[in-house]
Amino acid sequence: MPVGILRVCLVVITAIVNHPLLFPKENGTVLENTEEIIQKMKEREESLRLEQLRLEQEIAEQEATQKALEKAAEVVEETKEEKVRWDMWTALSMVIFLLIEVWRQDFQEGNWQDAGGEEDDMAVLGKAFKGLVFPDKAVLASFYEKRILGTTGDMARMREMVEGFADDLLEALRSVCNRDADMEVEDCMGVGSMYENWRVRKPFVCDLIVPFAPPEPYCFRSQIWCSGDCFPPDEQGYGTIKVCRADEDVTGCICDKTKLGEDMLCLLHSQASTTRPSSEMEDLLCFKNTQYLDADQVMKWFQIAVTKAWNRISHKYEFDLSFSLLDSPGALKIKFRSGKSIAFNLTPVVQYENSDVYFISHFPRSGLTADIPSSTHWFLTFAVYERRFIQLVSKTLPANACHVSCLQILSFLHGKQCSLTGPSGLTNYHLKTVMLHLLQARPSQDWAPEKLEARLQDMLKFLEKCLHEKKLYHFFVGNGKVPAELGFPIIFQRAEPLNLFRPFVLRRDIYRKTVDTFHEMLRNTSALINEYTVHIPLAHTNGIHKESL
User: Fold this and answer.
1) Of the residues 328, 353, 381, which one is the last residue of a structural domain?
2) 3-state helix, strand, coil in the chain (%, to 5)
3) pLDDT given for residue 112 in this prediction
4) Contacts of 454 (CB under 8 A, 6+ apart)
5) Closest-CA residue to 305 (of 186, 177, 195, 120)
6) CA-CA 20 to 30 A from 322: which of 36, 272, 415, 472?
7) What pLDDT is stored for residue 498 in this prediction?
8) Which residue has the higher pLDDT, 383 or 145?
9) 294: which DSSP letter?
């Protein structure tokens, strides 16, 4: 209780002491402080108002920016939609264009392969053929019998003699070679016109190819222009041959395709296995400091080996053997004591995988043939398949079919014209390619012997068409209609067609000369044939015409 009274007294005293009326002078600045406070409050209010305006302005700018971003996003979205639509139309247009291009190429190739289906389709001859008096059936038959048919027996005897001697020469070559270091030579094969029975011009020359392989433990690994690797246009039809160890994986590592630094080492291959002495690779007939087989080195080795082999067996024969042509290293000539001679070509080749396509080191050159890119590029020959195709088709043709006769006559006419006006860009291989295309295009019955005149005109028309378009496609490369019985490698059938007349596009001078020679041959056809034809009475000729009508 006393404590409570004491607390009340203290409160009352405190209230009296702090009453403002008791100290009027000390509180005289209250009004002045109040005005100052009010002034500060107004300033604060003004600053707050300015801050509010600033914030409102920032909010407005942010809203404007947001709207702009939203609008830009809408524009981008619309652009994407338009781009998607445009890309779709572009892709669709591209697909349509590709389909049209594929159809056009198929259509052209179809017409090319079916060129013999209708004679009107091939009637594209120039002015030189118009008004030409072409020899009739009787004149052609007499010419063929008198000038060409008699050479068949000579070719057979020559083939037999050359093949027997070549086998003996190669056997001696194997005996003089080092089996552990030199190339292994296989048996030779006959190819070309002499073995397809359409050679007409003398001197007769047998073409023999000799496959060879490296000594163990090495092997050949080849790359061709149509295998997917990038080959320039001037290297189409060529390939390269790499000499590798049989246990070497040339596709699994890139250490031999790129230059490693001096301080870098391939973890898959030791230095001993990847680096071979230069002398070792040169002994394997490779180009200097490479693993690629060198055609020039191969021909030098082959010439030396043939010379050694001939020295070993020369005492058995009563003739001499020599190399006949400098620009054809495999050209050999047998010289008898009587003065007569026989020429033949013995050319080393490399087999492509397990097929009968071969890389050939050298082949006869012509004015149209482009220069070989390098001595490590080997040309591919399909001569074995060409011979097989002719044999296969001949079984389905009528007896005494005229396909070989047409080729022989055309080859004779062209050879005679070139002897008068000089060489042209056409070769016998081009003429044979024309026959191969027509053999595939025309039905079997069209090659009956009595249709010799019509088929010969077809070949001339087809050749004129090719010259006009500067396009004569290789028969096998890019031809999907090759008979399956031949076992022809599918990689070549799927390849792009190989134009044998491509050099005409680059060499206009040779093209002009070739066309002029061809037209001149057409104008001289009757004269060239009549020169070697026994005179046929007019009445007999008219009788034949009446029978044919």
Assistant:
1) 381
2) 55, 10, 35
3) 42
4) 119, 446
5) 177
6) 415
7) 93
8) 383
9) P
Both 344 and 199 in one domain: the answer is yes
Co-location of 162 and 228 in the same domain = yes
Report residue 238 as tokens: 């060529």
Do 227 and 375 fall into the same domain? yes
111 part of a folded domain:
no
Q: Where is pLDDT greater, at 374 or 409?
A: 409
Based on the fold, state whether residues 134 and 224 are members of the same structural domain. Answer: no
The answer on 323 and 339 residing in a single domain is yes
For the segment 19-46, the average pLDDT, to the nearest whole number, is 65
Residue-number span of the structural domain to which 285 is assigned = 152-247+280-381
More confident residue, 131 or 277: 131
pLDDT score for 216: 85
Nearest alpha-carbon partner for 500 in 360, 362, 370 = 370
Q: What residues does 346 pair with on adjacent strands?
A: 208
Please name the residue that has the structure tokens 């607390």. Answer: 7
Average model confidence (pLDDT) across the chain = 79
Q: How confident is the model at residue 26 (pLDDT cuts 50, 70, 90)?
A: very low
In a domain, 100, yes or no: no
Structural domains in the chain (count):
2
Q: What is the pLDDT of residue 382?
A: 96
pLDDT exceeds 80 at position 93: no
As a whole-number percent, the residues of the chain with pLDDT over 90 amount to: 45
CB contact at 8 A, 324 and 332: yes
Contacts of 182 by beta carbon, 8 Å cutoff, 6+ apart:
215, 301, 305
| 441 in the same domain as 311 | no
Containing H/E element for 345? Answer: strand 341-351
237: left (phi over 0), alpha (psi -120 to 50) or beta: left
Looking at 381, 412, 438, which one is the last position of a domain? Answer: 381
> Does 271 map to a domain?
no
Residues 187, 307, single domain; the answer is yes
* pLDDT band at residue 282 under the 50/70/90 scheme: low
- What CA–CA distance (Å, rounded) separates 471 from 498? 9
- Domain assignment present for 344: yes
